[in-house]
Specification:
2 domains, six-stranded mixed β-sheet, alpha/beta, Coagulation Factor XIII, Chain A, domain 1, Rossmann fold
């Protein structure tokens, strides 16, 4: 599977629609072989005034089935969607979730040669998400090629072998999904902090006030190397941040970045007080002072909504003997000679 990543307006969905033939290129050529199935909006092809079973028949005929084949598959499709009891009801009376399940079931009844996925790998409630994910995975095992547009870097890393990073309509990077997504994430850190030799600008956004708790203490704590560190953040914000994802960086006392971690999902903020926490498990670090910065990124990483350079500080002590910053607990096993 190929992942396509980039900020809002970079051209990701446009590229996907070019691959699907929804749009025509003004320059160059798009070549593909076999049958493509584009998962842009599963409900787009549903006719609201037709019954569910008539929508199945119509959808399957458009996909290339004969009328007889389409009729024979109605029960299978509707049972997969979990709406067999609604087969004679018009689609307009279905809930949004039921429409999504119906659209997915119709679109995936026949294995395509190419899947084009715009932010969608599975749909519906937890039970149907598992079934739809299993069907998508079965397609991939059977040889279906897939292209996935996503803002979820963890999803791209887990599902895709290769990735392309689109920036202002151009390819910024192409290669291994792990390498490209990490470069994209690190670019957000680099852009935020390009004006500072230490990687921290020291800018605290207006209209935001931060309070940090480190292992139960305000702002700072002394921690034994190898112990866990719990960071609790409470932010007062004048305006709504919308959908965002938090990230933290850990710098040593020389200002060198030691790690940059981010929340794998997103948080939705409607305004007012906002609280969240992160636990750093078994932090095996060398003795010394470390600084933690907090970042609030937009969901697509294109904008930094807030940055707190001095969010917290920690002092590490009693580290194991050794060299370098990383000091994990170690246990040696030497066989008897």
């Amino acid at each position: 599977m190929l992942g396509i990543i980039g900020g809002n307006g970079a051209g990701k969905s446009t590229l996907l629609r070019l691959c699907g033939g929804v749009l025509r290129p003004t320059e160059g050529v798009v070549q593909r072989t076999g049958r493509a199935e584009a998962f842009f909006d599963f409900t787009a092809g549903l006719q609201p005034d037709l019954t569910c079973q008539d929508n199945v028949i119509l959808g399957l005929i458009i996909s290339g089935h004969s009328v007889r084949e389409a009729r024979s598959l109605v029960q299978e499709v509707l049972e997969f969607a979990g709406i067999w009891d609604n087969r004679l009801n018009p689609v307009r009376v279905l809930s949004t979730g039921m429409k999504l399940r119906l659209g997915f079931a119709i679109a995936t009844q026949q294995r395509p040669d190419l899947l084009l996925l715009d932010e969608v790998v599975s749909v519906g409630d937890a039970d149907f998400q598992e079934r739809s994910s299993d069907r998508t995975a079965a397609f991939l095992r059977a040889g279906t090629a897939a292209v996935l547009v996503s803002h979820d870097m963890q999803q791209v890393q887990s599902l895709c072998q290769r990735a392309i990073w689109i920036h202002h309509g151009q390819s910024a990077s192409y290669g291994s999904a792990d390498v490209v997504t990490k470069a994209y994430i690190e670019s957000a850190y680099d852009v935020d902090n390009s004006n500072s030799g230490t990687g921290i600008t020291g800018h605290e956004p207006p209209g935001m006030q931060l309070a940090t708790i480190v292992n139960g203490n305000p702002d700072t704590a002394t921690v034994t190397s190898g112990a866990s560190i719990e960071l609790g953040f409470e932010i007062n914000v004048d305006q709504a941040l919308g959908v965002f994802r938090p990230a933290i960086s850990l710098l040593d006392d020389n200002g060198q970045l030691q790690t940059y971690l981010y929340y794998q999902s997103t948080i939705e903020h409607d305004g007012g007080r906002l609280s969240f926490s992160v636990t750093l498990d078994k932090m095996g670090l060398a003795d010394g002072d470390y600084q933690i910065a907090l970042y609030l990124h937009s969901a697509d990483w294109s904008t930094t909504l807030g940055e707190f350079a001095d969010a917290a500080s920690i002092e590490i002590e009693n580290a194991p003997e050794g060299a370098g910053v990383l000091r994990p607990q170690s246990e040696w096993c030497v066989p008897n000679k």
